[in-house]
Write a structure and sequence with these properties.
The protein is mostly beta strands. It has nine helices and 57 strands. The strands form 13 sheets. Strands 8, 10, 11, 13, 18, 19, 20 and 22 form an eight-stranded antiparallel β-sheet that branches. It has a seven-stranded antiparallel β-sheet with strand order 9-12-21-14-15-16-17, with no helix packed on it. α2 packs antiparallel against α3 and α2 packs antiparallel against α4 (398-409). It starts with 12 loop residues before the first strand and ends in a 7-residue tail after the last strand.
C-alpha cells in the first residue's frame, strides 16, 4: 500500500539442540511440555535402535506472534539402544570423527525447531516410560506382569495432511501411473479410454478415526465415473456410471457399480471446486458428511454408516473411463484421528529385581540368585493394581531405592539362609491361622513385650503422592473416627510416597498405614530354638505366653537374628499382625467438578467477512495515504466473536484467492483479535433509531460514534450504522445513526448480529483486483489448541469499494421517505437528496437521514433510473427512465410527459451516485404505486335541479 514501509517488530527464534534425558533405552515418550504448557502428546516408541520422530505443531502455544510465539518443528527421540546409529542431524552439525552415537542414554534432538519470539529458552519437560525394556536393550523379565494399570490420554489432531502436490509415496493399485499427473500443484486423474486406474498410499493405521476433508473439481464428466476417493471406511465418488446413476450425482460410501448415500441431486458443476467433509458422530456409530460448493454448504447427511471395525491405513484415488472423457482434480486432503497413548506404572517386584540384577546401574547380581518369591509377589502386586513410577535422580546407594520401594508396597526383602537366594515377601493377610507355627514356653521365651499408649497412636493419615492425570502433587487423608473419639483430638501422621501416581493406590496405602498406626498393636522380642528355624522376615506365627497375658496372638516376624551360639538360639523381633483382614474398601474420591479454564477451541458463534470500506481504510492508513491506494483494488476484513464456554486467545485469519490451494499453516495467516456482536431481539424498520437486542455481553463500554456492521449478507445488501449513544454491557437496546458511510438504511430482522467493528476486526493487507473473488475463513485458538473445523468459508467479490462514491442520502419522494408499503404516488414525483463526500466525512459517522450536504465529492454526478412494473411487479420495461442529472440534489419525474405503458402499476425508482465510471455500492431504491386516471371515460348529459341542462358532467 502506498506510503507504507517495512518495520521489524520482533524476531523468531529457532534452535537445534541435543538434550540427554535419562539412562536408556526406554519404552516411549508420551508427552512433551514446554514452559508449563502441553506441546505434544502421543507415543514416540523408543525401545529400538532406530530413532523415532516427533512433530510439534503448536506455533501459538504461548500466544502466537503477538505474545511469545509457540513451538513448531521435528524432534528425534534416541532411545540409547546398544545398536543405536549416529543421528543424521547431529552428524551434519558435528562431523563423524568426533561424534558419539550416544548409546546407553535416552536423548532428544531438536532439528532447528521454532521456539517462539522470546530469546529466553523455556523449560522443557518430557514424560517417558521404561517398563518393558532393560538397560542392555533386552526384554523385561516376566513381561506380562511388568506393567500395572494404564492411564490413557488423547488429543484430536490431523493425523495426515497432504496437499496432493506430489505423487511421492503413491503406488499403482491398478491401471497406469501415467493417468495421474500433477497440474498447477494439484493431483489430476485422466485414465485412458476403456481403462480404470488407481493409486494408493499407505498411512496410519489410525484406529481412532475421526473423519476427513478433501477438495475436488470435475474437469470432464463424460459417460463414466468422474473420480473416486476412499479413506479406510469412507469412500466418495464425484459421479457414477450411467448404468447405475444416470445423473452422476456426488455420493459417499459408493463403490464401483454400487450406489452410496447421495449428497447432490445432479451432476457436479464442471470446473467448480467442491469440498467434502466427513466426521464421526459422538456415538461412534455413524458420521456426518457435508458437501460444500466453493465454500458454501450445499448438502449434508448426518447418518452415514461408519464401519468402526475398520482402521484408516491407506488412501486411494480411483477412476473408471469406460467411454471417452472423465477427469477429476484433487487437493488439500486432511485425515483426522486422535493422537492417543497410554502410560502405565511398573510392577514394584520388577523394580526391585532390576535394581538387584542390572549390571550398569544396579548391584549386578546374577539372575540365578533371584528366588521364586519375586514372581509370586509380582502376581499379587499386579492383581492389587499397585504399580509405581519413580524418577530416581539421587546420588545414593541402590539399597536406598530398594528400601523406598519396599516402604511403598509394605514388603521385606531378605536372603534366604537355607538357599542363599534373594526373596521378596509382601506383608499381607494371605495365611490360614490353624496352619501357622506356634511359639510358646515349650520352644520360646518372650524377652520383651510392650503395648503402646493411646497417646502414641495416630488416628488420621495423610498420604502425599504425584497424580499423573493432573501432573501435580496431590494428597489424600483417611481417618479412624473411633480412635479420634477415644482421645478427643486428631493426631495426624503424614507419609510421602512419590512413586504413587493415582488416587486408587494412594487411598489403599493410606488405609493400610492408618490400620497399622491407629490401634494399640503389641510388639516385642522372642528367643526361640531351631524347631522354628524356618521363620523368615515377613512370616507369621502364633504366640502364646500366659505370663504376659498373650493367648493365640498372631504375630509377624520383623527381623531375625541368628546368635551363633551352640544351642542354636534365634532372636526374632515381632509385631502383632495387623493385616490379617482385607484392607478397608476405598472409593476413588468424586471428581471436583472443576474444568480447565482453557478448554477445546470452538467455532465463532457469529462471524462475517467484507471488503474493507473507505471509512475503515482511512483509520488504517490515514488521510494522507489514502490517495495512494490503487484505483482497481480492494482489501478484505473479518469479524469473529469469541466462542462461548471456554477461553480463547485469538484466531488465525486466512485470506486467499478463490480456487487456489487452501492455506492452513499459521505462517500464512493473519492473527486476529475477537470482536463483539450484539444480537437483535426483534426486527426494526429502516428508519428506526433504537433497536431491541439481547443483553449485550461485551466487556467494556463502546462509545457513541463508533461503527457497527449489521448482518452477514453481501456487502451490497447490508448496512453500516454508528452508535448514537454509548453501548454498555448488559444493555437491551442499541441506539443507532442509520445508513452511514457507503450504505443506506435497511430492514433489520430478529436474531441478526450487529458487529462492532470500530477496531475489533482483522484486516489482510493482501491486495485483490476488482472482479476477483477472495475466499476467507477463520480458525479460533485457545493458545493450546486450534479449532479443527468444520470451518465457515466466505466468498467476497472485490468491487473496488474503497474508491466507490458514497450513495445519495436523505432521499425523499414528494418530501416522503419511502422504504416499504408501495405508497401511491401522483404522476409527478419530485426526488430530493443530500450530498455525501468520502473525503469531507472522512471517518465521521454521518446519518443517512441527516439533511445536511457534505460535498458533493469532486467529480460526482447522479443518475436516476425508473423501471416499469406490472401488477405482479414483474419488469415491463427496464430503465424506462435513465437520466444523468449532474451534481444536482433534486430531480422531477413527470409521467404525464414520460407516459408509462398502459399495464404499468408500479415504479421502481433508483438514484445512483457515480464518479469516474464507478457507481456507488448501494443505490437508493424505492417501489411506489402509480396513480393513474380512470380508463374508457365517455361524455353524457344529466338533469340537475328543475330540468335545466348544464351538460359537461361525467357519467354513463
Amino acid at each position: 500500500m502506498g506510503g507504507s514501509s517495512s518495520v521489524t517488530v520482533g524476531y523468531k527464534y529457532y534452535l537445534g539442540a541435543h538434550m540427554v534425558l535419562c539412562h536408556g533405552p526406554i519404552d516411549k515418550i508420551v508427552k512433551i511440555d514446554v514452559g508449563g504448557k502441553e506441546a505434544w502428546i502421543g507415543e514416540a516408541t523408543a525401545n529400538t535402535a532406530a530413532s523415532a520422530r516427533v512433530t510439534i505443531d503448536k506455533p501459538k502455544l504461548f500466544g502466537g506472534d503477538k505474545r511469545e510465539g509457540g513451538i513448531q518443528g521435528d524432534i528425534d527421540v534416541l532411545s540409547g539402544h546398544p545398536d543405536q546409529a549416529k543421528n543424521d542431524y547431529l552428524l551434519a552439525k558435528i562431523g563423524s570423527a568426533v561424534m558419539s552415537a550416544y548409546r546407553g542414554v535416552t536423548s532428544v534432538v531438536l532439528r532447528q525447531c521454532y521456539l517462539g519470539v522470546n530469546p529466553y529458552l523455556k523449560p522443557w519437560k518430557f514424560t517417558a516410560q521404561r517398563i518393558h525394556v532393560r538397560g542392555d536393550g533386552s526384554e523385561q523379565w516376566y513381561p506380562e506382569k511388568a506393567e500395572v494399570g494404564s492411564y490413557s490420554f488423547s488429543q484430536a489432531a490431523p493425523a495426515y495432511v497432504d496437499p496432493l502436490t506430489s505423487l511421492d509415496g503413491f503406488d499403482v493399485s491398478y491401471g497406469s501411473m501415467s493417468s495421474f499427473v500433477i497440474q498447477d500443484g494439484h493431483l489430476t486423474n485422466t485414465p485412458d479410454s476403456g481403462a480404470t486406474s488407481g493409486i494408493v498410499k499407505s498411512i496410519g493405521p489410525f484406529q481412532s478415526y475421526l473423519g476427513f476433508k478433501i477438495q475436488f473439481r470435475v474437469n470432464f464428466l463424460g459417460q463414466d465415473d468422474a473420480g473416486g476417493f476412499s479413506s479406510g471406511p469412507i469412500g466418495m465418488q464425484s459421479s457414477r456410471q450411467p448404468s447405475v446413476d444416470p445423473q452422476k450425482r456426488v455420493q459417499i460410501n459408493g463403490a464401483q457399480n454400487q450406489l452410496g448415500v447421495m449428497l447432490l441431486d445432479g451432476p457436479p458443476d464442471i470446473g467448480v471446486w467442491y469440498e467434502i467433509e466427513a466426521f464421526v458422530n459422538p456415538d461412534g456409530l455413524d458420521q456426518t458428511v457435508i458437501l460444500r460448493r466453493e465454500g458454501v454448504e450445499v448438502d449434508r447427511n448426518e447418518s452415514v454408516p461408519f464401519q468402526t471395525s475398520s482402521a484408516v491405513s491407506a488412501i486411494g484415488f480411483t477412476q473408471e473411463n469406460l467411454f471417452p472423457g472423465g477427469s477429476t482434480t484433487w487437493r488439500n486432503l486432511e485425515i483426522w484421528a486422535t493422537n492417543s497413548g497410554s502410560q502405565g506404572d511398573m510392577n514394584p517386584a520388577h523394580i526391585i529385581r532390576e535394581c538387584l540384577t542390572d549390571s550398569i546401574w544396579g548391584r549386578g547380581l546374577p539372575e540365578s540368585e533371584i528366588g521364586p518369591s519375586f514372581a509370586t509377589a509380582a502376581d499379587q502386586l499386579h492383581a492389587e493394581g499397585l504399580g509405581l513410577s519413580f524418577l530416581w535422580t539421587d546420588e545414593a546407594p541402590i539399597e536406598d531405592l530398594i528400601g523406598e520401594v519396599l516402604r511403598h508396597i509394605d514388603a521385606v526383602r531378605y536372603e534366604d539362609p537355607e538357599t542363599g537366594l534373594q526373596e521378596l515377601k509382601l506383608i499381607r493377610g494371605d495365611y490360614d491361622i490353624p496352619s501357622l507355627p506356634v511359639l510358646d514356653h515349650s520352644n520360646s521365651e518372650v524377652t520383651k513385650f510392650e503395648v503402646p499408649a493411646l497417646s502414641e497412636l495416630t488416628n488420621q493419615v495423610t498420604v502425599k503422592y504425584w497424580n499423573r492425570e493432573t501432573d501435580n502433587d496431590a494428597a489424600i487423608t483417611v481417618q479412624d473416627t473411633a480412635a479420634i473419639t477415644m482421645v478427643g483430638t486428631v493426631i495426624n501422621q503424614t507419609y510421602e510416597y512419590p512413586g504413587i501416581t493415582n488416587d486408587m493406590v494412594a487411598g489403599m496405602v493410606a488405609t493400610r498405614d492408618l490400620m497399622a498406626t491407629s490401634r494399640p498393636f503389641a510388639r516385642g522380642t522372642v528367643v526361640t530354638n531351631r524347631t522354628v528355624a524356618n521363620l523368615k522376615p515377613g512370616d507369621v506365627f502364633v504366640l502364646n505366653d500366659p505370663d504376659n497375658g498373650i493367648d493365640a496372638m498372631v504375630c509377624r516376624v520383623a527381623k531375625r537374628s541368628d546368635s551363633g551360639a551352640l544351642n542354636g538360639e534365634i532372636t526374632i523381633e515381632f509385631g502383632e499382625d495387623v493385616f490379617g483382614s482385607e484392607f478397608s474398601a476405598f472409593t476413588t474420591p468424586t471428581a471436583s467438578g472443576w474444568a480447565p479454564i482453557v478448554g477445546s477451541a470452538a467455532n465463532f458463534p457469529y462471524q462475517t467477512a467484507f471488503e474493507v470500506p473507505y471509512v475503515h481504510l482511512v483509520r488504517r492508513v490515514g488521510d494522507s495515504y489514502i490517495g495512494d491506494v490503487a484505483a482497481d483494488i480492494g482489501y478484505v476484513g473479518f469479524i469473529g466473536a469469541e466462542p462461548e464456554n471456554t477461553n480463547h486467545l485469538n484466531y488465525d485469519l486466512f485470506v486467499y484467492p478463490d480456487g487456489t490451494t487452501l492455506p492452513t499453516e499459521t505462517t500464512s495467516a493473519v492473527e486476529g483479535d475477537f470482536g463483539f456482536a450484539a444480537v437483535t431481539a426483534a426486527g426494526a424498520d429502516p428508519d428506526a433509531s433504537t433497536v431491541s437486542i439481547a443483553a449485550y455481553a461485551g466487556l467494556t463500554v463502546v462509545p457513541a460514534g463508533e461503527f457497527v456492521l449489521i448482518g452477514t449478507g453481501a456487502d451490497g445488501s447490508r448496512e453500516i450504522a454508528a452508535l448514537a449513544a454509548d453501548l454498555t454491557p448488559g444493555d437491551t437496546s442499541i441506539s443507532l445513526h442509520r445508513g452511514v458511510a457507503d450504505t443506506i438504511p435497511r430492514l433489520i430482522t430478529a436474531t441478526t448480529p450487529i458487529f462492532l467493528f470500530h477496531k475489533d476486526y482483522s484486516y489482510s493487507s493482501r491486495e485483490f483486483v476488482t472482479g476477483e473473488v477472495a475466499e476467507v475463513y477463520g480458525r479460533p485458538s485457545t493458545g493450546q489448541s486450534d479449532f479443527t473445523g468444520p470451518y465457515t468459508y466466505h466468498d467476497i467479490e472485490i468491487t473496488n469499494r474503497v474508491n466507490l462514491p458514497y450513495p445519495p442520502a436523505n432521499v425523499k419522494l414528494n418530501d416522503t421517505y419511502v422504504f416499504s408499503g408501495d405508497p401511491l404516488m401522483p404522476s409527478k414525483i419530485v426526488l430530493t437528496w443530500s450530498h455525501r463526500d468520502r473525503g469531507l466525512q472522512s471517518n465521521l459517522p454521518v446519518s443517512w437521514f441527516d439533511a445536511g450536504h457534505y460535498g458533493p465529492e469532486a467529480g460526482v454526478s447522479y443518475r436516476v433510473e425508473v423501471d416499469l412494473l406490472d401488477a405482479s411487479k414483474a419488469v415491463l420495461q427496464a430503465k424506462f427512465i435513465d437520466r444523468l442529472v449532474g451534481p444536482a440534489s433534486t430531480e422531477t419525474l413527470d409521467f404525464s410527459i414520460d407516459v408509462p405503458d398502459a399495464d404499468t402499476e408500479f415504479l421502481e425508482v433508483r438514484v445512483y451516485s457515480a464518479r469516474d465510471g464507478l457507481d456507488c455500492l448501494q443505490p437508493f431504491t424505492a417501489t411506489v404505486a402509480l396513480l393513474k386516471a380512470p380508463a374508457d371515460l365517455t361524455a353524457a348529459n344529466i338533469t340537475v335541479g328543475y330540468g335545466t341542462n348544464y351538460g359537461g358532467a361525467y357519467g354513463g
